[in-house]
Amino acid sequence: ALMDEILLNRKKLTGNIFFEVNPNFLKDIVWHAELGYDISSSKGEQWEPTVNLGTWHRTTNRSSVQKNSSTFWQLKNYLTYTRTIAERNHLTAMLGQECWESKYDYSSIANTNLPSDEVHNPKLGQGSPQINYGFGSSSMASFFTRWTYSYDNRYNATYTYRYDGSSNFGPSNRWAGFHSLAGSWRFTNEKFMENVSCVWVGVRLVTPTSVVTSGAPPSL
Fold first, then answer.
1. pTM (2 decimals)?
2. Could you give the C-alpha distances from 41 to 67, 105, 137, in angstroms and in order?
């Protein structure tokens, strides 16, 4: 095994670009846009030479090469409106959009009985070549809104709705809508908690009334 040669060469390019816009004439509104990407490729080579070490012999050499490549990108847009009314009422409304796509492919070839241990090209092997190839892709698009109301930083309510389309959903149900509703009470801001030990500061009781999530099934 110590005489075998295993090589792996990887290349990867990844990044994230975003910007935010907050116009002076619309100071309560912020637009956030984001683009992310990931591009990668790899090449793996394995060589098993013939071996003659006394009582242990390997009379057949073997060479294999595999190549992989994948791409991923995602685009996000959020439009957020924040407003405070009469000091104690805080409202946040958000509209959003997300989409992404992922693709991959791979190929491999292996062969035995190459002319010599100096030749590593599987094409020149005299054995039965083993050739494999595969590819796949998946994508998803989402549109959603989230509304949050807070009174006096004590009582909070949040409603979320999203409409998702996924290549992993069934062909007759490619799109689906999902709702969620949650409420919370920050009791540490109540007057009856003012004289309670500071160990309670920051404790929050969250009581979701109903929650539905949109988990697309994984790619198979």
1. 0.75
2. 7, 10, 16
